[in-house]
Design brief:
CATH architecture of the largest domain: 3-Layer(bba) Sandwich
Protein name: L-aspartate oxidase
Keywords: FAD, Flavoprotein, Oxidoreductase, Pyridine nucleotide biosynthesis
Organism: Streptomyces misionensis
CATH superfamily of the largest domain: FAD/NAD(P)-binding domain
Enzyme class: oxidoreductase
Radius of gyration: 22 Å
Distance between the termini: 9 Å
Pathway: Cofactor biosynthesis; NAD(+) biosynthesis; iminoaspartate from L-aspartate (oxidase route): step 1/1
Strand content: 15-25%
Oligomer: single chain
Length: 565
């Protein structure tokens, strides 16, 4: 691995602290990793972009999938995951997930998370798309993520872990040998630290969540701007499978011009028997798949999009009027409130829905221990590509992946510490070079990127749409680079400009991979290559950033990931 030497344009760090581990992100993956590292005796610092409970985890409605029910087995969970992944899951990674998952959920409960139970005191399990068993644990009906976040945040505070909130991570620090030596970050607002600083540590765990804000309409919060993936690319790490962005089929439709985070209508609503219908009230999923409305998300999203195109409609409907008021209020109170806040009463009328960007199946490429191609740099959660999701994530596997792989990362860091003895000093980071600094984009560029991506690389893609998107993104990239190299000008450093720059980085990678993959597989749908092509494309696409800021894009030789070390 060779570092690119590329850094975001930013002031030099004005302060620094030291730790054994710095965890970037405060969702289920980040806080689980931090708690397990702290329990292993490692000095741990958590850095998060907003408040501790402001990440994607708290928005999760459905729940956590694990083989906890009577008659269910990890093998059955594995089979459902492999089917959803459309031939690109790493089977060993999935086996680790489903076998270690049940105990990881039990440890989460021991940490303080309270899940819904039956009258007899057993976990109340539900079913979602792609699952042949009821194996989804949930909390507060449809507020699972909020409960998990509450429990983990309380545990972090109770144990006195050092946290730096409202801090945007900028770049990875490395030592003279190319190993991880910490991160630079910018703290927003007043506090113990302010402005650009650094956390020096020999291990960095990226758990920065998704990149849904690269599209105009998404279920992701505003902080999901692909910061971890962009940082990893600048550090020389490889990313994989970024073309596989899952569009959630049922997102509350707020109008054709709605932008940013949109309210999610959980798959669990369909799991309890809601029907997808068109404007005439016709159920269009029946007969398209054996599981009808509970087919894997890519199949449902495509069916909705096809029906919208056939009928020249802006949205379809989700009909759950037959639930009645009591079930809506008990089982789905969060969704009920969101619908009513937007003028829709699902008790008496169908819910207008349309697909929106939801989950990135790809990300920073890791091995079974969460290790990336950069020594000392780990990744877990949505910003990572462990091989678990393949071409399409099975519903409610993401929270489980965050739990299981965060624990595996903590175990690996602790084992490294045990093998090499107590830390006597943090590796000295190599000073940031003045050049090549990465040019920053103006804040308004964010909206241009979102429009380009929604039009060219959304649910429906083609060679023509992706080519237009690539050209438009390249123009933004070239203009910013020329302004810096020829005029010495770049946008003023700040959160808005750093986020826009990160979004352009991940958008270019996504489009480059989507152009190369000339087939339809999982949540990657090419209109001009409508069939799955196992002979040529049952393989992964790996991308890295070269020192000249160009992208090196290559397919793997087989469906297996090459080693990270």
């Amino acid at each position: 691995m060779t570092s690119t030497g590329i850094r975001l344009h930013a002031p030099a760090p004005g302060w620094a602290i030291e730790a054994d581990v710095v965890v970037v992100g405060s969702g289920v993956a980040g806080l689980t990793a931090a708690l397990r590292c702290e329990a292993a005796g490692l000095t741990t610092v958590v850095v998060t972009k907003a408040r501790l409970d402001d990440g994607s985890t708290r928005w999760a409605q459905g729940g956590i999938a694990a083989a906890l029910g009577e008659g269910d087995t990890p093998e059955q969970h594995l089979d459902d995951t492999l089917v959803a992944g459309a031939g690109l899951c790493d089977e060993e990674a999935v086996r680790l997930l489903v076998t270690e998952g049940p105990d990881a959920v039990r440890r989460l409960i021991a940490t303080g998370a309270h899940f819904d139970e039956s009258a007899e005191g057993a976990l109340e399990l539900t079913r979602e798309g792609g699952h042949h068993r009821r194996r989804i644990v949930h909390a507060g009906g449809d507020a699972t993520g909020a409960e998990i976040s509450r429990a983990l945040v309380e545990a972090v505070r109770a144990r006195g872990l050092r946290t730096i909130e409202n801090a945007l991570v900028l770049d990875l620090l490395t030592d003279a040998e190319g190993r991880t030596a910490g991160v630079t970050l910018h703290v927003m607002g007043e506090g113990q630290h302010d402005g650009v600083g650094a956390v020096h540590a020999p291990a960095v765990v990226l758990a920065t969540g998704g990149m849904g804000q690269v599209f105009s309409a998404t279920t992701n919060p505003s902080v999901s701007t692909g910061d971890g993936v962009a940082l990893a690319l600048r550090a020389g790490a490889e990313v994989s499978d970024l073309e596989f962005v899952q569009f959630h089929p049922t997102v509350l439709f707020l109008g054709p011009d709605a932008e940013g985070q949109q309210p999610l209508v959980s798959e669990a609503v369909r799991g309890e028997g809601a029907h997808l219908v068109d404007g005439d009230g016709v159920r269009f999923m029946a007969g398209q798949h054996e599981l009808a409305e509970l087919a894997p998300r890519d199949i449902v999203a495509k069916a909705i999009t096809r029906r919208m195109l056939e009928q020249d409609a802006e949205h379809m409907f989700l009909d759950a009027r037959h639930f009645g008021a009591e079930m809506w209020e008990h089982r789905f109170p969060t969704i009920l409130a969101a619908c009513r806040a937007n003028g829709i009463d699902p008790v008496t009328e169908p819910i207008p829905i349309a697909p929106a960007a939801h989950h990135a199946s790809g990300g920073v490429r890791t091995d079974a221990h969460g290790r990336t191609t950069v020594p000392g740099l780990y990744a877990c959660g949505e910003c990572a590509c462990t091989g678990v999701h393949g071409a399409n994530r099975l519903a409610s596997n993401s929270l489980l992946e965050g739990l299981v792989y965060a624990e595996r990362i903590a175990a690996d860091i602790a084992a490294e510490r045990a093998a090499h003895g107590p830390r006597t000093r943090v590796p000295a980071p190599v000073p940031h070079p003045e050049q090549p600094a990465h040019p920053l984009l103006a804040p308004e560029t964010r909206f241009a990127i979102q429009r380009i991506m929604s039009e060219g690389a959304g649910v429906l893609r083609s060679a023509a749409s992706l080519s237009r998107a690539a050209d438009q993104l390249q123009r933004l990239h070239t203009e910013a680079r020329e302004a810096l190299t020829e005029q010495g000008k770049t946008a003023e450093p700040g959160v808005d400009t750093w986020e826009a720059t990160n979004l352009l980085c991940v958008a270019r990678v996504l489009v480059a991979a989507a152009r190369l993959r000339e087939e339809t597989r999982g949540c990657h749908w090419r209109e001009d290559h409508a069939e799955r092509d196992d002979a040529n494309w049952r393989r992964h696409i790996v991308v890295r950033l070269d020192p000249d800021r160009s992208l090196a894009v290559r397919p793997t030789d087989t469906a297996d990931f090459p080693p990270t070390r």
